[in-house]
Structures are given as structure tokens and as C-alpha cells.
Design a protein that fits this description.
By secondary structure, the chain is mostly beta strands. The chain has five helices and 20 strands.
Length: 417
């Protein structure tokens, strides 16, 4: 236990909020990821954010949900619950096969606290340890990796969780030889008290993990264009989606070879390959702006790097997509990508499939007004694919009544397709 997770009120830690992507573990449980937890908090009285609270985006009104008006746990101005915000922003492990009252979900704090978008595990054939990859879903934040201390089966035999005993890393994307070819090397920077850069910066490992973002700032991680999902391909390569970032001019992120577009409204996908626990290579898999029609080509921006110059797609823009978000790699070299953001050519958010080797892509599905296509899961025989449409119409019946026929009245519903 850490005092940073205790409140003067003595209330138990309860609940999980704003759950985003989920990742199955090699041992049969799954992790659900707490994203955008800060928006559930607000202040009924006078309150000034600490450095930590400011870095995680806490504010007096949050997202406007008003939980703090009715539940004192979420009132930032109440000193009895000063640490309640530290209890959220974690990966939560759930065992769906055991007694739900006896085997409570567990927040795996060794995996760091940030706006977890999803988590994906490296298959055991590549490494018998628990190796997983995670993105922090905010413009200008980072890519992370967690590695267990020993093979995950050994941890379980010793009666301990592989997710409680390991090392957390954050990514620094270094430039390549010429600095403008869209590929390079990188380093996984250790986030622990053994890293000299972090010595004396935190009171202990609990302080570091509660403030994972601040630790990543200190070691010099590369700010990315809003890290979203990650998935592992057939050769152990990792594909990362970056939805967009058009706010570099106000300090949210920075131009780099790995993020070569200054006003990156369309997003991109990067592929990384670990060459050791602490090193990797990377290259830009696709810039989504390069799926646009030539007639819709972006105007040149003097801030963009040369590698970001528009290149017309081979299909002339017939399968244009932007804002990649959810991503899943199957065992046959396909990548399925769900989008979340303003699509071109009056399209709604969509599901796209790639041939990972050739880079060829096709649209599989287009959604409904103001939705997000997210989550991809096939049946074992690969004849059926499941995905979801999330927040269709942003909940407004004047936008859509999906899945009901349009009548302007029926509330739209999230659906699994």
C-alpha cells in the first residue's frame, strides 16, 4: 500500500472509469484500460491543482459530467479525498472465469498511471516473459512498454502476478542516418529508481508510478501525435496508431521525424521492432494524409518535414481514411484499423483492412454520423469479425437513431456489429 493512494476519509478504493481498449493476457485474464479519468473530477469549492494534477489534466469542471456535485470522492476541493484521483488511470486486470466476489479486479500499478488507451501482449513464441505495449492517449504524450522480471509462468508458479514484478519503459524515437527518411532507431528508457536521471526526483517507486507522465518527461521521452492502440504482427513487430495532433503550436507535442506533420489532422501509423529490452527500430508505416484524393491534397506547410510531403495513393483516394485509432493484427498478416475523427469525402468513421506486407488497404465498413469504430475481434475460424460503433450521433437523436430507422426521436445506441 502507498500513502499516495490513501484518503483521510479512509474510504476503500472502488470502481473503474472511462474504460477504453482491453487486452487479453497470455494466462487467460484480460486488462481493461482507464482513459480520460480526469474528466470525472471537479471542484465544488476553492481548489488549485498540484503539479501532478495539472500534468494529468484535472480541472474545476472536468468534462461536465458533474460527478463531483453528487459524490464527494470526486470533489477536488474536499481535503478528505485528496488522493482519490491517484486511484484512477491504471490497467485493471479482470479474471472472467473465477468467482467475481472472491477474485476482485486488480489495478496493476507497476504498469504505470496515465490515460491508457489499450494494451497488447507480445506472443509467448517471441518472449516467455510478459511483454506488453501501451499508448497514453493525449496529444504530446508517450508510448510505453512493460516487461516482467521472469517468464510469466514462473511468476504464476511462485504465486505472484507477472504484472506486479517487472520494469516499465517509455519510448524515445531517435532519427535515422539522414534524419528525413521516416525511419530510425529508438531507446526504451527505464522508469525506475535505478535510472540515474530519476534519482532524487521521487520519494519512492510509488511516487514515480503515480506520476508516470512526469517521470517520462524527465527522462526525455518523445512526444507523439496522440498515441492510441498498439498491436503485434506476425513477426513480433508492433504497430502503433497516432490519431491526430493539430495542436503543436500551443505546446501539445513537437515536430520530429517520427511526427513529421506540424498540423497532423489525419494521423499516422508507426511500426517498431524491439532489438533488445532497451532498443528498437522504427519506421512510418503510413501517413493517413497520403490516402486522400489528389484533389483533396493538403496545402504545403513550411513547418512539415520533407518526409511528410503528400504522395498520391495508388487507388486515387477511393479508400481514403484518416484518424487511425483501434488496430488489430491477425495471424495471416492483416491489419484491421478502426478510425475516430473527421473522415474525408463525407465519409463516417470506418473499418479498414491492410495487407501488412504490401501496405495495400481496403475499406470494409463505414459507420454512422458522429460515431467511432473501435474494437476488433475475430472468431477462431476467421469467418466472423466483431467490431463496435461507439457513441453514434454523440447520443443525439437528431443526428442518428441507429440502429433504429431514422425518426429524429429514438436515442441512438452503441452497438456490436
Amino acid at each position: 500500500n502507498s500513502p499516495l493512494l490513501d484518503n483521510l476519509a479512509g474510504n476503500p478504493a472502488l470502481g473503474t472509469v472511462n474504460n477504453c481498449g482491453a487486452g487479453p493476457t497470455p494466462w487467460g485474464t484480460y486488462l481493461t484500460c482507464e482513459e480520460n479519468f480526469n474528466g470525472y473530477f471537479g471542484a465544488n469549492g476553492l481548489w488549485s491543482p498540484t503539479v501532478s494534477q495539472a500534468r494529468y489534466g484535472f480541472s474545476t469542471t472536468g468534462f461536465g459530467y458533474g460527478w463531483y456535485v453528487f459524490d464527494e470522492r470526486f470533489d477536488l476541493s474536499n481535503p478528505m479525498y485528496a488522493n482519490e484521483g491517484n486511484r484512477f488511470g491504471w490497467c485493471v486486470e479482470i479474471n472472467p472465469f473465477k468467482n467475481r466476489k472472491k477474485d476482485m479486479p486488480v489495478k496493476r500499478t507497476a504498469m504505470g498511471r496515465f490515460k491508457h488507451e489499450s494494451v497488447t501482449f507480445l506472443p509467448e513464441k517471441f518472449d516467455k516473459r510478459a511483454v506488453c505495449y501501451m499508448g497514453d492517449d493525449q496529444r504530446g504524450d508517450y508510448c510505453y512498454k512493460y516487461v516482467s522480471d521472469k517468464p510469466w509462468r514462473d511468476h504464476l508458479l511462485d504465486g505472484e502476478s507477472p504484472l506486479d514484478h517487472g520494469t516499465l519503459y517509455v519510448a524515445r524515437f531517435d532519427e535515422g542516418v539522414d534524419g528525413n527518411d521516416g525511419k530510425g532507431s529508438g531507446e526504451w528508457l527505464e522508469l525506475s529508481m535505478y535510472n540515474p536521471a530519476l534519482a532524487g526526483q521521487f520519494s519512492g517507486m510509488d511516487d514515480l508510478l503515480v506520476n508516470t507522465r512526469i517521470a517520462a518527461d524527465i527522462v526525455g521521452a518523445t512526444p507523439m501525435d496522440r498515441p492510441e492502440w498498439a498491436t503485434v504482427g506476425t513477426e513480433g513487430e508492433v504497430y502503433w496508431t497516432f490519431t491526430n495532433n493539430d495542436r503543436k503550436d500551443d505546446g501539445q507535442g513537437a515536430l520530429s521525424e517520427a511526427n513529421p506533420i506540424f498540423e497532423n489532422t489525419d494521423g499516422h501509423i508507426i511500426k517498431t521492432i524491439d532489438t533488445s529490452d532497451t532498443t528498437f527500430t522504427w519506421d512510418i508505416f503510413i501517413l493517413a494524409r497520403n490516402t486522400r484524393r489528389p484533389a483533396d491534397a493538403p496545402a504545403p506547410d513550411a513547418n512539415d518535414l520533407q518526409i511528410a510531403a503528400y504522395t498520391a495513393p495508388a487507388d486515387g483516394g477511393a479508400n481514403v481514411f484518416t484518424d487511425p485509432d483501434a488496430i488489430y493484427a491477425d495471424g495471416d498478416g492483416r491489419l484491421f484499423v478502426g478510425t475516430d475523427g473527421g473522415q474525408r469525402d463525407e465519409l463516417q468513421d470506418q473499418l479498414v483492412v491492410f495487407d501488412a506486407e504490401s501496405g495495400e488497404y481496403r475499406r470494409l465498413l463505414s459507420g454512422v454520423a458522429s460515431d467511432e469504430i473501435t474494437g476488433i475481434a475475430p472468431t477462431p475460424n476467421q469467418r466472423t469479425l466483431f467490431t463496435n460503433t461507439q457513441h453514434p450521433g454523440n447520443g443525439s437523436p437528431t443526428n442518428t437513431n441507429f440502429p433504429a430507422p431514422f425518426d429524429g426521436v429514438t436515442i441512438p445506441r452503441d452497438c456490436t456489429l
